[in-house]
């Protein structure tokens, strides 16, 4: 089984990829989340445990629905 740290790293990396694909800066996303830029950075760099509600809010802001299966763009569906 994959360790929690490795899963956090994967999640953070995927969230960063999604944000960048949307052309959104970390500053812009953090403002829309009403969170500090540092908090978003810690999430993307796996320095904090992800909060499910916060991850869902990020996905809503990025207009991501459906399933995400890595860097293959055919697997995710923007709203």
Automatic annotation (TrEMBL):
It comes from the Bacteria. GO terms for molecular function: DNA binding. Residues 15-69 form the HTH cro/C1-type domain. InterPro entries: Cro/C1-type_HTH, Lambda_DNA-bd_dom_sf. This is HTH cro/C1-type domain-containing protein.
